Amino acid sequence: MRSTLTLEQKIGQRLVAGFPGFELNEEFKTLIRTHKIGNIILFSHNVANKRQLASLCQELRALVREVTSFEPFITIDQEGGMVTRLSNDATNMPGAMAVAATADPENAYTAGRITATELLALGIDFDLAPVMDVNSNPQNPVIGVRSYADDPATVARFALKMMQGLLDGGVLSAAKHFPGHGDTNLDSHLSLPIVDKSLEELERMELVPFKAAIDAGIPAIMTSHILFPQLERKKLPATMSRTIITGLLKDRLGFDGLVISDCMEMAAIKQFYGTVEGTITAFTAGVDLVFISHTNSLAAQAATAIKKAVAEGKIPMEEMDASVEKILRFKQKVAQPAHENASTAMNLDLVGCEAHMQLAARMREDSITVYRMPATGLPKLGSNPWFLGCRAYRATNASSMIDPAFSFPGYMTALFGGRATVTSINPTTGEIEALRLQALAHSCIVVGTYNGHLNSGQLELVNALVTSRIPVIAVALRNPYDLASLSYGASLIAAYEYSAATFDALAKVLAKDRQATGRLSVKL
Known about the structure:
- The longest helix has 28 residues, at 317-344.
- This protein has helices spanning 7-13, 26-35, 50-68, 96-101, 105-122, 152-168, 199-204, 207-215, 242-252, 267-270, 275-285, 296-311, 317-344, 354-367, 408-416, 429-436, 456-466, 500-510; strands at residues 15-17, 39-42, 73-76, 126-127, 172-178, 220-223, 258-263, 289-292, 369-372, 385-389, 419-422, 444-449, 472-476, 491-494.
- The strands form two sheets. Strands 1-2-3-4-5-6-7-8 form an eight-stranded parallel β-barrel, surrounded by seven helices.
- By secondary structure, the protein is an alpha/beta fold.
């Protein structure tokens, strides 16, 4: 098969590109036609609702099939929780740490299976999930609740179940971000992180879930844009390192599936190496599928530069052919049959159906975790509760888009009455004192924190409100690490996610309609 393809077709099979908006634009169509791009990535900015998305995927498939004679991989980051791309008329499952808080790995399988069922009905065949990073660094700004735990065995146990659910549902699964993004204090979307660990240290922690995934038959592994100086002496991130991709992942760990890159437009690559040069180096490192997710002109430049690099012998033709053959094998054995099944029995009624929504809701309810409360139990909200907290913000570019009108205080006040106050992301001393003076008018105070461990004013606000002697409940609405620095005078809850679905689950606990049974999967 590969011998009949032109070099342009081979290069196109190894690239993944995206576009803005709910409809295909002429620039993207031209990119596909000119450079034979064989694969697509979708984001929330491509998704208005399930019917629009299904129609868009059909159009994408028809275009790529016409141009390349092969089905595309249509990929998406549908992890669950804070990294979801589907609209609200689909089922967005809880995130990894919330699922782990249920203490039942079968929930991870259910999350994967439901996700796959709905993606397939929509025409998507490749989920860039699960996250297999071990969140061993509480200050990690990009992973956090996207990880199942800070313990590698727990991560492996839950992540493998989600992987199996995705595969059983007919969708490809990718473990990310190899060899591990859990022990960083920088976001590779914004900078170039360094993990200064030996191979032995990595084998005890970061590599444990990836080894388990390889043994279990994971079809794809996504690379990280992180420097590992004890593995790679040249200043090259894992995505661009032949030592790490070919030497460690393929030769030492025996992985023979698809190696895929994280987006080459992230600052860790674009700013420090350049997207085009980074793409060529990723090819030479042994990456099969390279993502240039946003800028069509960069994808076009990369395709042209790769053709030149092959002609100059920088990218061996035998390695080009081997990668293309592997990609087409996965398309034929996994993606294409799955798509054919979906197209003959496509049932958009499954997407966001009541049964799926109820399972997701039950999972979120089971995840709500009380970290600390008085012996007498959670305080009652009373007749005039006060709900405070900042709006969510995009803590990392990997996160879903944020609705600027949506807030925890506003949502909870609509459910319970009382008063809502939206605070700053990092309240100042003056703001905190002004709020503290207003506490006495209320029967109970409920404060939602959002990455308070990275915005200490939120935590100072909670501790100041406790001094008012009005009952205080603090809820961590993303990373539970916020709770470690809060006063013993407050009742403390981890909810893991800033979403209406999670607020509904939390409301049942606050109303005392349900016990919180979740368990933390990280140490505070």
